[in-house]
Amino acid sequence: MKVISISILAVLLFAGCKQGTGNQTAENQKPNVVVIFIDDEGYGDVGCYGATGFETPHLDQMAANGMKFTNFYSAQPVCSASRAGLLTGCYPNRIGFSGALFPGYLVGIDADEYTMAEMFKDQGYTTACFGKWHLGWQKEFLPLQHGFDEYTGLPYSNDMWPRDNVKGERFPDDHRKSRMPELPLIEGDEVIDSITSMEDQDMLTTLYTEKAVDFINRNAAQPFFVYVPHTMGHVPLGVSDKFRGKSEQGLYGDVMMEIDWSVGEIIKALEENGIEENTIVVFTTDNGPWLNYGNHAGSSGGLREGKTTSWEGGQRVPFIIQWPAKIPEGKVCNKLGCAIDLLPTFASITGGSLSDNKIDGVDISSLFMGDFDSAPRETILYFHGRNNLNGVRKGNWKLVLPHTWRSYDTEPGMDGHGGRRIEMTVEAPELYNMMRDPGEQYNVAAYNPEKVAELMQVVETARAEYGDLNVGIPTGSGTREIGRVEE
């Protein structure tokens, strides 16, 4: 893949002759914003959240410089839906998103949805996205049509290719994935190369990082927003030679160490340009770990289950934020937060406006500033499937609704091979106290009927707004259509 090596060389040459630059200050300019979004990283995959077998010193330093959340949630426990929620401030099913979009699908983010990038751009920010998009692969759905000035990355997940996830060898013609195209590397709106080997996958974290650093160097004198949705640690895992074999944990640990390096490189670029003080940096992940991949999967940190489930391990994720000019150092926030809150929060902080579209996010900037007496988010809704409401959390209580899921409670795969999963069902509502039982082991519904009734009121309101296929309601009063293109 010649483009990657050429791109990296160009960035390094530019960085070598760069003048030291931006004179932004918190007093004279709106803050820059960097959102680093990881794929399939679990709650227990960062040092300050208890990771073992590898170290994440840059992320740990971020938490020391700013704040980490212990009750932060992705918008849904799977790729495309999670990203749609992050960028639009909506529960994904409000805007027609569910699951993961595959190559060949004719849907994507609708032109009428107002994205985080558009909110920043309308304030004069320069915007960029480097990494995995996964909100539709046709031109109408790509980043440049939704508020970004620059884009380099993959349009969907790195396992959506006609190759196996162990050696990168092409599948035979009778395999279900054989008709998938090679993974396209896109710059702007154009395919500039293809990912056709495990060696190509190895270069992706470095590519995105150096693209982000170059963007920061070029835009240090003006407000910018850069979104870095890393492909890793989604299977198949790829890591550069810089980190291969460096962790005790194995390949997954190597990948996490390179992700941590990426965070360090981005923060170093802010420091070198004199703009770290006036830049908000966020680190979080799209959903929990893909546990049936065994040693190629992350850790849910003691939470139950993982990706694609509505148990805590599927949707509760690490969240770290630093903004030296405003956010107090070394704080831990235990209040509820969700990725859908970032759009209205950033709008509030920067003075941006939102569209007339109804959204679900709330402004949690008071928490960022250390006001832990406030509780701007009262509930979390756990949607999954096409439009299935599987649970609701209010304060320290979580009600799990009757539903069926594919459990990881069986023997996992190894070395890039996925293990099987087993179907399990919740037959009646189950109640868990998240303060005492974050692992969701002890159903206390029978002892707290008044709490079950209270949370069921939240459920019924949500069903009217969004629908719930678990009880035969396909849609609600507040949903909108996903974008579509003609075949």
CATH-level-4 superfamily name of the largest domain: Alkaline Phosphatase, subunit A
Q: What's the order of the H and E elements?
A: HEHEHEHEEEEHHEHEHEEEHHEEEEEEHE
Distance between the first and last residues' Cα? 30 Å
The counted number of beta strands is: 19
Kindly report the CATH topology of the largest domain.
Alkaline Phosphatase, subunit A
Describe this structure in words.
- The protein is 24% helix and 19% strand.
- With 487 residues, it is α/β, with parallel strands linked by helices.
- The strands form 4 sheets. Strands 1, 2, 4, 5, 6, 7, 8, 9, 10, 11 and 12 form an 11-stranded mixed β-sheet that branches.
- Strand 6 and strand 7 form a beta hairpin.
- It is globular, with a radius of gyration of 21 Å.
Gist of the model:
By secondary structure, the protein is of the alpha/beta class. It folds into 2 domains: 345 residues, 3-Layer(aba) Sandwich (Alkaline Phosphatase, subunit A); 99 residues, 2-Layer Sandwich (Arylsulfatase, C-terminal domain).
Key attributes of the depicted protein:
Alkaline Phosphatase, subunit A, alpha/beta, eleven-stranded mixed β-sheet, 487 residues, 24% helix, four-stranded antiparallel β-sheet, 2 domains, Arylsulfatase, C-terminal domain, globular
